[in-house]
Each structure stands twice: as C-alpha cells, then as structure tokens.
Amino acid sequence: MLWFTFRQNNSGGFYIGPKYVIVEAKSSVSANALAEENDVYFNGCSKGIDCNCCGDRWSRAWQNDGEEKPMIYGEAIDPENPFYQDSYGAVVPSEEIKIVRMSEE
C-alpha cells in the first residue's frame, strides 16, 4: 500500500473542510476514487465550483505521488495522531488533516 496526499488549494480565498486528505491505497486510481468519497472533488473550475483565477481546489494524484508513509511536504506524519508543523512553526492541527485507510476487504 502507498499513501497519497491531497492538498487543498484555497480557491476563492478560503478552505472547505480539511486542508489535507491523506489516502492509503494500492494505486493513484484507487486513491483518487477514495479521495472523492472523502471531501475531495476534481475539476472544480470547469464545473463552476472553484475560482478560475485561483485554480482548482483539489488535484488528482499520479502514481509517482505515492509514498511509503503518510506525508505532508516531505515530512512523515502519524496516521493515528495526524499533526504537522512546518519549518516556520505554522501548525496544521489534526482537525485539518483527514486520514483515509483503504479497507482490506
């Protein structure tokens, strides 16, 4: 399994829901499908949902985006207690990070 991180662009100057959705999946195709089931949508500008000047809120994952661990900007995070602090000290609390695990069914 790989981890795929979907980072929200603040299209229109605001965020909707979690800033990050991190998905465990076997492939980018599976990750994109799981992301769409969990607060993520794609092609928001063409659908008239997102601001054209700011761009789409979410972008699809590509296969080479998969990581062995859940990551935000190259930093591993704990999927049981997601928390991220960047090098400038800005904190992304767990409420703004959604972890989606692929079921083993």
Give the strand content.
15-25%
Overall shape: globular
Mean pLDDT: 92
Main sheet: strands, sense, barrel? 3 strands, mixed
Written as H for each helix and E for each strand, in order along the chain, the element string is EEHEEEEE
Rg (CA only):
14 Å
What structural keywords apply?
two-stranded antiparallel sheet; 1 helix; 9% helix
What's the gist of this structure?
This protein is mainly beta and 105 residues long. It is built from one helix and seven strands, in the order ββαβββββ. The protein has one domain.
Write the layout of secondary structure elements.
Elements: E1 2-7, E2 20-25, H1 28-36, E3 71-72, E4 75-76, E5 84-85, E6 91-92, E7 97-100
Parallel strand pairs: 2-7
Antiparallel strand pairs: 1-2, 3-4, 5-6
Task: Describe it.
The chain is mainly beta and 105 residues long. The protein has one domain (2-100). The protein has one helix spanning 28-36, and strands spanning 2-7, 20-25, 71-72, 75-76, 84-85, 91-92, 97-100. The longest helix is centred in the N-terminal third of the chain and has 9 residues, at 28-36.
